[in-house]
Structures are given as structure tokens and as C-alpha cells.
């Protein structure tokens, strides 16, 4: 699902090797109590990127996860397993394991109920399980491990605390997630508080570069009318311009998860039922599609039971969209309707966004997560001279690796701290800030993405546009009104442009 694109910055190719070498050296000096965490973090460098899906109860987390996988693995009903943090990862065989707080790992028998994986917990309760791991051979999971978390506003304090504990970095631990998709239906104060708790000012914790807001269940916005996704996009655009939210996540995008899941799993029999409903005539359809309750209970040639299944499966918006697409002959087969569902849902745009925003920074995000674990392990004995030497090496990597530097600069820009000074604010106008964010890799780290050019652009054009940007920002950095903090952002951006103009690219 998330592909890794080579960064324009030369240091990127050495970052993972530097972090790996540091962690191997650390394993020769740390104590036995810290060793397991560091060994796990070292192995994490070679694992897929970990993306957690978080949000309130009924925000559509499991449905979105299923849509991203393309299979209905995650249960969407409120069962015992939905109270536990559950990892979905690729593997050679189908299996479910429970990790217990004692460190014991148990393989569990499981069944599939309406497609969802339902582990048999036996005598175990949710409180007895640290995490569940579902191993499933699936192409989207080869590059990304997806992590389903319980609702953060559960009426059960213990259930809600599991998500907070897992995703919120603390003094004793770093979060196990490299990035997070945070789902909201309507943004509330506790959503902002949760995102704030996922962040700090340093590179070792959450930053706006590794969080994306999802306006979930977007098909329900606008009363499930056929323009619901356009209405949802307008709402998402307003969230994207909210200064507080810009400081907490990269962007906000609307996704109709139920529609995307339906597109991935649509059955021929369901399509046939929708055709029969469509053929009942326009007058009957007007009454039938007036509301979800009317659709289920209004007299029809299709049974109430089947219509109830359709509304549960597709939602009122999905049914209305299907009927309109079939009636207009825009779709004639189940495959074409499935494609329509996926296209309209926004899931393809989200996958592309994940590839650009997370995939292009996969190595940096994993390296940052590993260093956060190592730092906490070393700080258990900060007075130890060998630990002090290793901590200095962490500081050196974080200071000199430009990928990390870009993450910090993007965070400063999005927080508004850089433009706080009045003189700098005159120079860093909104268009300039957006260009700097793009050049720092805010929209993806390939040279063409940084420069706002098409992917297939000629290398000579890349160099020309990069030279223009370099000249323009060099003049900006030397402006007498440019203050220290703002100047550091501009000079850091110039360094990113110089990565695009490296000798390697000139001779490619």
C-alpha cells in the first residue's frame, strides 16, 4: 500500500545504516533489562512501516482498516476483541496470536464471521491481553503494518486507556506506531487534546509529518445525498486551514470507509439485488430511498431481510449511488459498480496520499522511532559514561541527518512559531510558506513532488525549477528583515533544494 520513494537528500541513503550501527554498538554496553527493547527496535528497522488507526468509538476505524487491506478482517461490531489493540501484519500463513503482559505469546484458534477474523479467546479476557496480532498474507500488508486501536472515548476507562497508552509517548517509552491516521466525524476538543498528546517539539515523538486526519464516514455528511463527498471535501478543506489542526497533522481528507470496503468485497448477488430494486421504477424508488428506515420497511419486490443487509453493507449513500449508477447505465456489471464505489469513496486518494506522505519518509520515520526507543533505554542510566557517549551519538545523528531536520522545520512552520515575529511574517506570506512546505517534502520527497512538477518531468526541467527556487530562497534568507528562526527554516529549505541539485542528479 505504501511504497518507498528515494529522497532528494543525499544523507538519506546512510541514515538507516548509521542508526543500525549505533544500535548494534549499544547492545554491547546496555544492561540485560534494556536489551529486549533495543533488540526489538533494531529489528523494527527492517520491518514494514507501522500505521495506527485511531479515533472515537464508531468513527469507522475498523471499516477504514478493512478498506485499506481490501478484505473484511477487522470486526466492526463491539465485541471483546475490539477492546484490544490489534496488529494486522503480513505473513506466510493465517494466524492469530495474543501477547500477554507476562511476555508469553499464545496462538489462538479463530473463525471468520461475515469475513471478520474472530479469535477464540478461551478463558482470556481483554484485560489479560497486551495486544493481538493477526497475520494475514495480503499484498497491502507487505509494506505497511496496520494497527487497530480501541475508541479513545470508550465508556470503559480501561478500554480508552489502552489507546492512549499505546499511542501517547511517555517518559518511560516511545510509541510503537511510526505514524497515525486519526479519524473524526466532527472535530471536538478531546480530538485536539489527543493529537496534542501524540506530539512534542522533538524529532523523537509525534509531529505533523506522521499524522493524517481522516474526516470519516464522509458519505453521511450532507444527509447522504449524491453530492455528500463534495460536501465532505469542503468540510475537510476548512479543517486543513485551521491553524491548530495544521500544527497537529499533515492534512485532513474525507473518506467513505464503508463505501470503500463495499467496493473491495461486493458480491454478484448484491449487485443483482440492487438491479432488481432499480428496476422497480422511479416513483417507487423516490419513496424507497427517502431514508434508511424507509428503504428497509417500504413494500418492495426485494425482501426486507435483503434490503436490511444492503443498507448495513453499503449505507444509504451507497445504495443511492448504486441505484443512480445502474439506472443511468453508467455501470452494467458488479465489477463496474465495485470500481465506482472505490473511486467515489476517496480510498484511492488516501492510498496515494499515504504513499507520498508516509511512504517517501518510511526510512526516516522508522529510524526516528528506533532512536526514541534507544534514547529511553540509555536514559535509564544517564550517568554511565558509555551511555553518555551513545546519547551524544544519537544527538549527532538527529542534528546532522537532514531528513530529521526537515521534520523539525515542517513542525515549526505548521505550528506558526516561525511566523510569530512581525518582520518575518511580512516575508513568509501564505504562498511562500506553502512553497517551503512543499520543498521540505510536505507533499512527498521525490524531486518532482518537492518542486510541484509532474512525475514524468524531464530532468533538465527539474534542475531549472530547482535553480530558480534556490536563487529565490537564497535572496529571501539574506533579507535584513529575516529573523534567526525564520532564516533557519529558509536555509534548511535551501539545503533540501541542494539535495535535488546534487552532482548525482546532474550526471544522471
In short:
The chain is an alpha/beta fold and 508 residues long.
Describe the structure.
By secondary structure, the protein is an alpha/beta fold. It folds into three domains: 12-256 and 348-360, 3-Layer(aba) Sandwich (Rossmann fold); 266-340, no CATH class; 416-508. Helices cover 51% and strands 10% of the residues. It contains 23 helices and eleven strands. It has helices spanning 12-27, 35-44, 61-69, 157-167, 189-197, 228-240, 243-246, 257-265, 268-278, 282-288, 292-297, 304-327, 334-345, 347-357, 362-378, 385-400, 402-415, 422-427, 430-439, 447-451, 459-477, 484-500, 503-506, and strands spanning 49-55, 86-89, 95-99, 105-108, 110-113, 116-119, 131-135, 144-148, 179-184, 211-215, 252-254. It has a nine-stranded mixed sheet with strand order 4-3-7-2-8-1-9-10-11. Strands 5-6 form a two-stranded antiparallel sheet. α3 runs parallel beside α8. Mean pLDDT is 84; it is low at 2-13, 200-206 and 504-508.
Amino acid at each position: 500500500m505504501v511504497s518507498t520513494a528515494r529522497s532528494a537528500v543525499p544523507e538519506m541513503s546512510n541514515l538507516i545504516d548509521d542508526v543500525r550501527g549505533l544500535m548494534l554498538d549499544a547492545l554491547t554496553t546496555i544492561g540485560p533489562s534494556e536489551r529486549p527493547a533495543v533488540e526489538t527496535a533494531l529489528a523494527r528497522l527492517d520491518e514494514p512501516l507501522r500505521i495506527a488507526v485511531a479515533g472515537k468509538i464508531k468513527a469507522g476505524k475498523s471499516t477504514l482498516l478493512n478498506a485499506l487491506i481490501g478484505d473484511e478482517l477487522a470486526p466492526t461490531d463491539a465485541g471483546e476483541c475490539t477492546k484490544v489493540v490489534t496488529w494486522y501484519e503480513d505473513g506466510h500463513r493465517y494466524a492469530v496470536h495474543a501477547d500477554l503482559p507476562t511476555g508469553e505469546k499464545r496462538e489462538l484458534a479463530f473463525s471468520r464471521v461475515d469475513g471478520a477474523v474472530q479469535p477464540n479467546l478461551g478463558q482470556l479476557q481483554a484485560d489479560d491481553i497486551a495486544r493481538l496480532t493477526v497475520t494475514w498474507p495480503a499484498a497491502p500488508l507487505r509494506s505497511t503494518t496496520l494497527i487497530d486501536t480501541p475508541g479513545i472515548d470508550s465508556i470503559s476507562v480501561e478500554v480508552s486507556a489502552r489507546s492512549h497508552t499505546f499511542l501517547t509517548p511517555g517518559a518511560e517509552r516511545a510509541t510503537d506506531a511510526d505514524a497515525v491516521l486519526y479519524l473524526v466525524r466532527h472535530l471536538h476538543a478531546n480530538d485536539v487534546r489527543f493529537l496534542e498528546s501524540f506530539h512534542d517539539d522533538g524529532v523523537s515523538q509525534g509531529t505533523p509529518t506522521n499524522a493524517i486526519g481522516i474526516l470519516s464516514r464522509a458519505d453521511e455528511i450532507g444527509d447522504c445525498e449524491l453530492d455528500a463527498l463534495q460536501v465532505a471535501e469542503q468540510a475537510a478543506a476548512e479543517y486543513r486551514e485551521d491553524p491548530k489542526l495544521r500544527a497537529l497533522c499533515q492534512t485532513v481528507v474525507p473518506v467513505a470507509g464503508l463505501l470503500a470496503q463495499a467496493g473491495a468485497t461486493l458480491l454478484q448477488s448484491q449487485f443483482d439485488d440492487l438491479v432488481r430494486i432499480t428496476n422497480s421504477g422511479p416513483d417507487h424508488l423516490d419513496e424507497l430511498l427517502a431514508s434508511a428506515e424507509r428503504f428497509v420497511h417500504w413494500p418492495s419486490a426485494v425482501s426486507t431481510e435483503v434490503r436490511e443487509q444492503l443498507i448495513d453493507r453499503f449505507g444509504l449513500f451507497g445504495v443511492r449511488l448504486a441505484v443512480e449508477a445502474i439506472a443511468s447505465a453508467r455501470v452494467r456489471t458488479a465489477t463496474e459498480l465495485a470500481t465506482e464505489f472505490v473511486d467515489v469513496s476517496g480510498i484511492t486518494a488516501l492510498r496515494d496520499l499515504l504513499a507520498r506522505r508516509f511512504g517517501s519518509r518510511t526510512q526516516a520515520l522508522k529510524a526516528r522511532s528506533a532512536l526514541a526507543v534507544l534514547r529511553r533505554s540509555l536514559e535509564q542510566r544517564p550517568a554511565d559514561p558509555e551511555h553518555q557517549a551513545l546519547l551524544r551519538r544519537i544527538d549527532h545523528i538527529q542534528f546532522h541527518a537532514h531528513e530529521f531536520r526537515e521534520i523539525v522545520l515542517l513542525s515549526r512552520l505548521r505550528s506558526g512559531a516561525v511566523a510569530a515575529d512581525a518582520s518575518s511574517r511580512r516575508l513568509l506570506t501564505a504562498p511562500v510558506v506553502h512553497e517551503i512546505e512543499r520543498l521540505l517534502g510536505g507533499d512527498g520527497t521525490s524531486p518532482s513532488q518537492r518542486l510541484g512538477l509532474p512525475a514524468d518531468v524531464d530532468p533538465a526541467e527539474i534542475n531549472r525549477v530547482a535553480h530558480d527556487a534556490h536563487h529565490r530562497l537564497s535572496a529571501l534568507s539574506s533579507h535584513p528583515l529575516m529573523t534567526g528562526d525564520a532564516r533557519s527554516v529558509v536555509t534548511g529549505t535551501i539545503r533540501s533544494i541542494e539535495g535535488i541539485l546534487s552532482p548525482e542528479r546532474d550526471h544522471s
